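Here is an idea for our session: we take a single protein and study its fold together. To get us started, please write out a protein record for me. Once you have written the record down, we can walk along the chain together.
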Amino acid sequence: MRHNIALLNDSFPPQIDGVANTVVNYAKIIERDLGHSMVITPNFPEANDEGFPFPVVRYPSFDARNFIGYMAGVPFSPTVLKTMKQEQVELLHCHCPAAAMLIARETRFKLKAPVVFTYHTKYDVDLLKALKLKLLSSNVVKMMVSNISSCDEVWTVSHGAGENLKSLGFEGEYIVMPNGVDMPLGRLDDEFVEETVKDYDLPHDVPVFLFVGRMMWYKGIRLILDAVAGLKARGFDFRMVFIGDGADATAIRAYTDSLQLNDKVIFTGALRDRQVLKAWYCRADLFLFPSTYDTNGLVVREAAACSLASILVRGSCAAEDVTEDRNGFFMDETAESLEAKLAELCEHPEAMKAAGEKAAEELYISWDTAVRHAYDRYEVVLENFRAGKYPRRRHITDEILRANGELMTVLSKMPLIDTVFGWFTGD
């Protein structure tokens, strides 16, 4: 049955991150094959939404990119509610527990619609990174958990993500709803791959290791650099390629230089062209992803699309569906463990190739498959909602507003933007 679904998130192109990419794929596939979708998201100065095959409704925001990396939404826009009522939205699917959730919590009563929330990332780590104030961030985490708890159904992208949410104080139930990847299954033509990487020093008789993601220390990048430094000291030849950009990029390059790894390590910066990125996946022999931060590790499934196996921290979220030494490889969360595994695989390159082939068969999930699975669950949520099976929810009160205002209060201590928050925090 075709339904009208509103997808709410605090980031959306041209702001690019994994959750924004998720929302784009949900909206595109629902609109194309399943029902009707619309995206609710903050204004962005350079935004041009005309190319999307679904409506994008933007609400007021202010520029907080220098502080938290995003445009910060100012919720309670009457235009948003009016548009959703005109479109007869039946279900609200929220992907961020901040401004997007405030809109969902208030409009659900006017629309008589259930709210689904997907927990994508370890927001407590993000908050600590952005705020650098552990004591204050605890209040913000409480607000976030309160918002999530107000939803009719909570999804997580992995079991590990669900357990992280529980550790923050969430006491409800959750359903694991994995995300997909938009990289098609299958390798690219060898000539295209070679043309794409021709400007880099990549001898064909040495293994190429690859990392794709934000250049942030908490992604496990120091482990990688220390491990390959040990590998070099042991006389192994290899190339280590980092693709991405981020706040720690300069420090990471400096650390690479201090380890005298510039002859082995390549930084490409961020790559927006998906075919170029896929070419790198196809050129590599092993994907390195020693992150315990990521809740899903979509890059692992992107690598699998190209028959590229990954080495992952044992017990991490990214390793949940991986079978050790069959469709991927495990390490302890130490540089010594990673170095030892890389040395072993350098001496047995056939093991990397065989695991890559199994990864393509067993780990790859397309966005079409993932979104259709989610849409089937929408049907259940709507049936449960109509049957009155979910608890009665409260309207937003002054108490809830004050709790959500904690984040705004913290940010208001920063220069230049304090006047923006005055109305919200009651100051």
Residues 407-427 have pLDDT under 50 and may be disordered. The longest strand covers residues 36-42.
